[in-house]
Specification:
Length: about 280
């Protein structure tokens, strides 16, 4: 495939800057896309009316950067929970997600919703993890037709036990996707969240490639690529061989010493690792 990866970055690294400036800064560094944490735009997607949605979309178009989609989708408001036995709260939370799908579609075509949100999906209120998982699957299945209608893909993200007790391996995530059986529900791979996996990451990706719709990259400890020993060469070689043509999106949790320097050095390192991967094919 010869080095055709598209790189994006999650926007909370530049939180506090005007949205247009975030787009301009990422594009000037060399990123092709911006992945948005919706809480950086508004507490509730319904707070963003049609005019503001058009403005956000136009800002991305004007800066020449593509809209990738959303992650950290349930950070705000903090009262949301999608697997709680509290019917009213659960219904309100899934309605919020429906509104978020609508906003995602309005901001650009082909957007994704990365469904991590560990606190808002873990078993609570006396529920067992299996009870919570059943409610999670039910809610996703109900959301799927609307997501499909709006051409948004909801991605079931596997989260390790250190974060959540609901869907913690890629195998479990794939099981959820296959059970729902909708083109609007897929999964993704996140390097940082694969700590409970027992198979090599490249083997997991190959086994489940048909349902992997997105890639998050960072070191296993959440720092930027290049500050640890994650094997990005093998990852990129596998993705290239399988014909991966979606986003490689940088999601990090440590912005020190400087967000701009982190973004610059991360992209430089990823490109170097990709070149090594292609050179050894």
């Amino acid at each position: 495939m010869a080095n055709t990866f598209r790189y994006a970055m999650c926007n909370e690294v530049f939180e506090g800057r005007p949205f247009g400036t975030q787009c301009r800064d990422l594009k000037s560094i060399g990123y092709d896309g911006i992945e948005i944490a919706p809480y950086t735009l508004a507490t509730d997607p319904l707070d963003l009316g049609p005019a503001r949605r058009r403005e956000l979309r136009d800002l991305m178009l004007d800066e020449g950067i593509d809209f990738v989609g959303f992650h950290w989708i349930l950070v705000s408001p903090q009262t949301l929970h999608v697997t709680t036995p509290d019917d009213a709260l659960r219904q309100r939370s899934w309605q919020y997600l429906r509104n978020l799908v609508d906003l995602c579609a309005d901001l650009g075509p082909g957007g994704v919703l990365v469904f991590g949100s560990p606190k808002q999906r873990s078993a609570t209120g006396g529920s067992t993890p299996e009870d919570a998982k059943r409610r999670f699957v039910e809610g996703l299945a109900n959301l799927a037709p609307f997501a499909e209608e709006r051409a948004v893909t909801v991605l079931v993200e596997a989260l390790p036990y250190s974060q959540s007790n609901v869907v913690h391996t890629l195998e479990e995530a794939v099981g959820v996707v296959r059970e729902i059986n909708s083109p609007a529900i897929r999964t993704m791979f996140d390097c940082h969240n694969a700590e409970d996996e027992t198979e090599p990451h490249t083997a997991l990706i190959e086994k489940n490639f048909d349902l992997i719709h997105h890639i998050h990259v960072q070191e296993m400890d959440g720092r930027r690529p290049g500050l640890g020993d994650y094997d990005f060469v093998s990852l990129f070689r596998t993705l290239d061989r399988l014909g991966y043509n979606r986003w490689i999106s940088l999601e990090i949790f440590d912005f020190k010493p400087d967000p701009d320097e982190v973004a610059i050095q991360a992209l430089k390192y990823l490109r170097t690792q990709a070149e090594l991967a292609f050179a050894t094919v």
